[in-house]
Amino acid sequence: MTTAIDTSAPPEFHELSADEVLLLLSTDPASGLSPEGAAALLARTGPNSLPVAPRTSLAVRILRQVHNPLIYVLLAAGAITAVLGEYVDSSVILGVVVINAAIGLVQESKAEAELAGLRSMVRTSARVVRGGRERTVPSEDLVPGDLVKLEAGDKVPADLRLTHSTGLQVDESALTGESEPVDKHVDPLPAMVPVADRRNMAYSGTLVTAGTGTGVVCATGAATELGEIHRLIGAAETLATPLTAKLAGFSRMLTVGILALAAVTFAVGLLRGHDAVAMFTAAIALAVGAIPEGLPAAVTVTLAIGVGRMARRRAVIRRLPTVETLGSTTVICTDKTGTLTENQMTVQAVWTPVARYEVSGRGYEPEGTVRDDSGAAAGTDRDRALHWTLLAGAVCSDASLVDHGGKWSVVGDPTEGAMLVAAAKAGLDAAAARARWLRVAALPFSSERLFMATSHRHAADGRPLVLAKGAVERLLDLCELEMGADGTTRPLNRLAAASAAAELADRGLRVLATAVRPADASADGIEDLDEGALAEGLVFTGLQAMLDPPREAAAAAVAACRTAGISVKMITGDHAATATAIAREVGLIGTGDEAVLTGAELAALPDADMAEAAHRTGVFARVSPEQKLRLVAALQERGHVVAMTGDGVNDAPALRQAGIGVAMGASGTDVAKEAADMVLTDDDFATIEAAVEEGRGVFDNLTKFITWTLPTNLGEGLVILAAILFGAALPILPSQILWINMTTAVALGLMLAFEPKEPGIMTRPPRRPGQPLFTGTLMFRTALVSVLLVAGAWWLFNWELANGADVAQARTAAVNVFVTVQAFYLFSCRSLTRSAWRIGMFTNPWIILGLAVQAAGQLAMTYTPAMNAVFDTSPIGAGTWLRILAIAAATSLVVALEKRLRVRVEGSAPQQR
Ligand code: ATP
């Protein structure tokens, strides 16, 4: 008998059972692929990464540069002047279009490359089983057939067919748009189930929100579902930020206004009987001169330079607008462990209901002693509570110690590592203990549960055992008994344990309690540990207290923030006393301050009081991740711009809510990094402060560019307007205006983007969020400088004419007035408050380079016959140059006086005005 088998399509992985998939991919369910096999396969399949999105073609990129109302106007003007036979003007105009597009293109590519380069700084890794050993490999090295372990917080590194799932939940919104996490299982599914409902698969790029699991890789790189989507939409990185959007809007408005003005000029000129062609090109010149075309490019370049500077200080920006927001940060909410402290734990004291012990030694070297109050070495046989305290710490744990030739480190949680070291110092062999007590099930640690528990059976006789360790008050609540010296139990002396814990926490130590359910108790529920059944018969054994020293740079960074008007708040899962002690050490709160709120107190607080409490309090202890979200929202309600750190899965909502979500690059989960705006590659609090400083610098440089460019643009427009209104000869010709505009924006203005930060940048208050860029100060300055420019150029033009120069020479003089005044004014714009002299000539070498280039350009334009012909210029004498320099010097003097007066009247905080 034959059966009809449909051979048209091979079965998909979700249709097969987990065993069939493993067989198909030749993966051993216990030991995975062999390392050699995986390497060989990798050579064939290529890295597990998405192909770089095909770049938009050059033609499209160029067209994008040209797609701008202003350029349309220019193109039209170029075409009309060509038809009219004004070939020089038309080629100059077209030349401007080409140069403008080329500059835009180069700058855009540079900014994009900078952002793309950052992505590779935050690498993801995956835990795989290869050759029977679990190891961490870069996600790019995964191959089909690899056995991958997943836990809450991971980003799924490739498409996996699940082989194990313990409460595994995955957020698949990146793929399906569905925001609720979905439960995963391992059972085969019918063929037609769509991707979004394949519960036995975990797809690359999705995020594990709960549980643990194992899966076998069935597709990598471009072959994954994510790769498919990526191919469809292409991953275009947008360079737009709220600021660029605002500026684009401003430019559009300006374009319309200026075009209207140009039209009026044209009409007035015609009415006065001027030549239509000349009036038309003059009107065009007015438009081109008055529009700050360089502005969008300058913003992108300045932001990109800022992103680069931040990356060098180990803050990786994931979203460009963050660069702007950083400058106006008013509150930084930071966690304690690993950010303010080193996350280098060492157990310093152990307390049991029997005795207290001090532990010597530092770091993870298992060298040191455990001695009791009398100085005698601790005997775990004399104090069974000590034995079980250390054993619970070492066995109810997923960490291990690694010896790199005498230099020890922890794989896993440093808190657990410290307990392994403490056990070793007392002579307890953790590896042997783990082999003796085989683990049956585990209740993993979470920031909500605040403890971890494991159940075991004895390797020899199968006796059951439950171990637990965690936050003191949590475990004391679970226990009714405590252990005595001989290992027998007695009623818990809660008060004694709690006051011992408080005393240790006041020393700034992180205190954990341990408990056991002894082997002779019942084995109920040990197969699937659940929180409810656990408490039955749990016996408190003691406390371990560990030191996590503050980071060296933390205190200075906290102080710097304070000077900068930014308040720093600690939001930690740790105990209030420990948190307070560390907060004092880093200067976050004063000695007398008792500004601490616990999670329980926060929970009891009515919503109405929340904003005030959040604003006033410096330390929040035993806070759950959900409360972090509430705190951010409350602070925002008070008008704060909040930067918030986070590392766990449950921190993601708070990170998203915060103005700046900050994730830990080294210790954070993928979920947190994904939700964050900025990732600290060194997890250090001081890096946030550095990023804020850079953010302020970026904003300063933008303001400087705008302050420089607006007056020059307005001045150029005004000169033409005035000439036509007064019926005088044009002091500068359209082609000359185009020359001035294009060369100075690139050679002079853009160099402000490289300006180093000003010294006082962290001594002034944060920029008010939403503060307009175009302040009254800026308007006044724009008016002042443009009037000075026009007056200078106008005066010299007429003076030269009156004193025997021809029109070409007089115009050459006027053009040079414009450029020279702009060059001098550039120095004034290098600082918003300090005078040009005080900054130091050579602190920004780019400016010097730009000046040299511009000077060469001016000399060529003035003295080379070829350029004389193109631009209608003519050589001028030394006397004229002296007059030009005198005008520029006089203008600078007036600007310097204005700046000084303003600083004196309004104080030295330009950002506040
Ligand atoms: P921060 O938010 O500043 O990083 P944290 O790291 O101290 O704070 P959690 O990791 O949430 O916050 O820890 C909170 C408490 O849970 C600790 O004070 C400790 O009592 C307990 N705890 C921490 N790690 C473990 C662990 N691996 N096993 C059991 N309990 C733990």
Automatic annotation (TrEMBL):
Residues in the signal sequence: none
Superkingdom, taxonomy of origin: Bacteria
Compartments where located: Cell membrane
SMART domains xref list: Cation_ATPase_N
Entry keyword Acyltransferase: no
Domain spans labelled Cation-transporting P-type ATPase N-terminal: 12-86
Keywords, in A-Z order: ATP-binding, Cell membrane, Magnesium, Membrane, Nucleotide-binding, Phosphoprotein, Translocase, Transmembrane, Transmembrane helix
PANTHER family: CATION TRANSPORTING ATPASE, SODIUM/POTASSIUM-TRANSPORTING ATPASE SUBUNIT ALPHA
Family named by the database record: Belongs to the cation transport ATPase (P-type) (TC 3.A.3) family. Type IIA subfamily.
Entry protein name: HAD-IC family P-type ATPase
Organism this protein belongs to: Glycomyces albidus
